[in-house]
Amino acid sequence: MTASAHLLQLDGVSRVRHAGAFTKHLLRDVSLTVNPGDFVVVWGVGRSGKSTLLRLACGLERPDSGAVRIEGADLAGMSPAELGAARLGSVGLVERVGAETPELRVEDYIALPLARCLARRRALDRARQALDALGVGHVGGARWQELDDGERARASLAHGLARDPKLLLVDDLTVNMDAVEEAEFVALLAEVARSRRAAVLMVTSTLSAAVDADEAFTISDGRLRPVNDSALRVRRLRRGDRHADR
Predict the structure, then answer these.
(1) Please, where are the H alpha helices in the chain?
(2) In a 10 Å sphere around its CB, with 0-12 CB exposed, 13-18 middle and 19+ buried, how is residue 55 labelled?
(3) 215: domain range?
(4) CA 112, CA 48: separation in Å to the nearest integer?
(5) Residue 209 has what DSSP assignment?
(6) Is 246 a domain residue?
(7) Does a structural domain hold residue 244?
(8) Is there a contact between 9 and 69 (Cβ–Cβ < 8 Å)?
(9) 27 with 49: CB under 8 angstroms?
(10) pTM for the complete prediction?
(11) Is 103 a member of any domain?
C-alpha cells in the first residue's frame, strides 16, 4: 500500500438495478474510506443499500459509475483471476448465511477459505484457533443448524478472520441479538480492528451497533451520510468512550 492509498476507498460510487421499466438506485454517489485500525459502521433499514455496499467493496458487484479501490488498486481494472486473488489475500466477508451443506461441521466451514494454501490438518488447526480466540471453541464439531444466533455470529466472524485479512466486511450480524449480545459482539469487532490493525466495515440495521465505531454513517435512498444522532452521543458519553467527542 502506498503512503497515499487508503486500504478501502469508494469514490463517487453508484449502482443501479433495472427491472423492466422500473429503475432502482441502490447507491448514489457514495464516497467512503476505511484504513487499518478503523472500525466503521453503516446503519440503515432493510433494502437501503447496505449489502450492495459490501458486495461492491469486495468486488462481487461492480459499480455503474465511480471507483472501488483496495490498497490503491481499482477493482474494475482487474481480471477475474486477479480479483479472486485480491479477495482471497486481503478481504474477509462475514455474512449470516453460514455453511450451505448441512453435514459440514463448523470447523470445516471455517477452514474452507484456507484450503487453497494450506494442508487440511493445518487449515483445521487455524479454524479451531480462530474459534477459540472468539470464545466459541466448543462449536467446532457442531453443525451450523445446531448453533444459536450468538454462536453463529462468532463462527461467521471466525470464518472471515481465518485468513487474517487486511479488510473485514461484516453484513448485519447483530440483527437477531439481544442488547447484551450485540454490545459484546460490536466490542469484539472494535477490538479486532485495533489489535489486528484490520480495516473493519460493518453494515447494520440497529443504530445501537454504532456505539463503538470510529466513524458511523447512515444509508437511505442509496445515499451515505454521517450519523448525527444525539442518543448515540449520550450512549458514548455514559460509557466514557474515547470517541464521544467526535
Answers:
(1) 50-57, 80-90, 106-111, 120-133, 149-161, 179-196, 230-239
(2) middle
(3) 8-239
(4) 31
(5) G
(6) no
(7) no
(8) yes
(9) yes
(10) 0.88
(11) yes
Three cell numbers written together for 18: 433495472
Q: How many domains does the chain have?
A: 1
Report d(CA 25, CA 204) in Å as an integer. Answer: 20
Q: Residues with Cβ < 8 Å from 229, sequence gap 6 or more? A: 207
In total, the chain counts a number of residues equal to 246
Instruction: Give the CA distances from residue 106 to residues 39, 135, 150, 159, in Å, rounded to whole numbers and listed in that order.
Output: 26, 14, 14, 9
Q: What is the CATH number of the domain that holds 133?
A: 3.40.50.300
- pLDDT (tens place) for every residue of the chain, 246 residues total: 544 579 999 999 999 988 777 888 899 999 999 999 999 999 998 888 999 999 999 999 999 999 999 999 999 989 888 888 888 789 999 988 887 777 889 999 999 888 878 899 999 999 999 999 999 999 999 999 999 989 999 999 999 998 899 999 999 999 888 889 999 999 999 999 999 999 999 999 988 888 889 899 999 989 999 987 655 664 555 555 544 444
Whether residue 173 is contained in a domain is answered as yes
